[in-house]
Amino acid sequence: xxxxxxxxxxxxxxxxxxxxxxxxxxxxxxxxxxxxxxxxxxxxxxxxxxxxxxxxxxxxxxxxxxxxxxxxxxxxxxx
Amino acid sequence: xxxxxxxxxxxxxxxxxxxxxxxxxxxxxxxxxxxxxxxxxxxxxxxxxxxxxxxxxxxxxxxxxxxxxxxxxxxxxxxxxxxxxxxxxxxxxxxxxxxxxxxxxxxxxxxxxxxxxxxxxxxxxxxxxxxxxxxxxxxxxxxxxxxxxxxxxxxxxxxxxxxxxxxxxxxxxxxxxxxxxxxxxxxxxxxxxxxxxxxxxxxxxxxxxxxxxxxxxxxxxxxxxxxxxxxxxxxxxxxxxxxxxxxxxxxxxxxxxxxxxxxxxxxxxxxxxxxxxxxxxxxxxxxxxxxxxxxxxxxxxxxxxxxxxxxxxxxxxxxxxxxxxxxxxxxxxxxxxxxxxxxxxxxxxxxxxxxxxxxxxxxxxxxxxxxxxxxxxxxxxxxxxxxxxxxxxxxxxxxxxxxxxxxxxxxxxxxxxxxxxxxxxxxxxxxxxxxxxxxxxxxxxxxxxxxxx
Lengths: 79, 453
Description:
The complex is a heterodimer of chains A (about 80) and B (about 450). Helices cover about 50% and strands about 0% of the residues of chain A. Chain A has about 80 residues and is mainly alpha-helical. Chain A has a domain at about 1-45. Chain A is elongated, with a radius of gyration of 17 Å. Chain A starts with a helix and ends in a 30-residue tail after the last helix. Chain B is of the alpha/beta class and about 450 residues long. Chain B folds into 2 domains: about 5-240, Amidase signature (AS) enzymes; about 255-300 and about 340-450, Alpha-Beta Complex (Amidase signature (AS) enzymes), CATH 3.90.1300.10. An 11-stranded mixed beta sheet of chain B has the order 1-3-2-4-6-5-12-13-9-7-8. In chain B, strands 10-11 form a two-stranded antiparallel sheet. In chain B, a hairpin with a 2-residue loop joins strand 10 (about 385) and strand 11. The longest helix of chain B has 23 residues, at about 300-320. The two termini of chain B are about 20 Å apart.
């Protein structure tokens, strides 16, 4: 799912929080959206199927890290 | 023994109780006196079982007088996190949501401890429903760190760690879903063990996220934690006395994961950890750098794995009586209701990747070694804390080095490892192979004597 769909989800969730009288929820939802972007940045199925490298060169053979290098994944908590 | 008796370890006290040299009633009275003297200020306990605990102690003393000793836990006063059922006693989970609840029976771990002769002095305070890392948000008031009452003791098992440090109980039983045994252990200076996931039964314990929940001991030594673990495991080997000798430090091989785990550390925490490695090296341990390739994704994987499970458990009560939750915990539960199913499923696959990462890092090592907490205990109520000049979320920092091993199920233990200049404890965390919690305990016992100056 692309970022704009996460944005769509976030807008909808924030509107629902407002409707329910829970504006304090919006920073948490925004942080969760950041965490979701980070989670989706890795193809976990591909990572799982990759051949385990021989110890101790444990990074060899695992894909997808380069796609998100430099990003610091969030955890769903506001900073 | 120079300190008062109720500040000693189970392994020191057990032979004296068994021989009738110390009565359980005396130990129990001493713990209850500490609670009476200090708990108004520290708020470590939600329920104190004064008369009931003394009755348990007298009955166990009578057994000793009659020649029956149940084992090393016989007559030892301990406490239970108030998430764990004890028959006839409320399990509040530190929440007004559970007002009026009284446990109909014992949790399995409670029953096993009772059968082993433990005396239950009370139920300890926690972060409401274990859904937090500071023990600030409790319907019974924030728990205070005895090393600095303006600071958090960590959480969610904060009251358990405080009880041990202050002599209110000799050990305690906590739960750990993202670090809730190890975090308060590090912040208060106790030993805290999270066994391999699934080893100890969690029935009779209020869940947070079932696939991440663990129950385990907080104690004054690795040997005490080992003993409590064996008893709660229900293994006949719990009767072993004395405990098996620890393995030699010489030749112990520790894997040191640095990338991610050392990226955000308080300077003093970094310094204490480096000192610990130096002392262990001098004692003959070997260190090898290891990598956990996807460690940087721990936090987003954790939130997507844990939040929906917590929200599912609380769905009925958050709808019926949301005002009974503390505001922060309510919002966290509500957040999980918005998370998409496909992302929860994605997180489950990511957990398998992380599990394989940690398994690979452990290949060729006896254990992984890393700090337990990247920061010393934060001020009560703080939302952010300064780490190397950058404000960081307290919750993120508290969970940063522990939650990975809840996702993967590996056993992990925090051992006291010195203090900051302000006297705030630092924790040294060891992580072992899955389904080899005793191997981890043996490694921890080998490290323990070398971790404090």
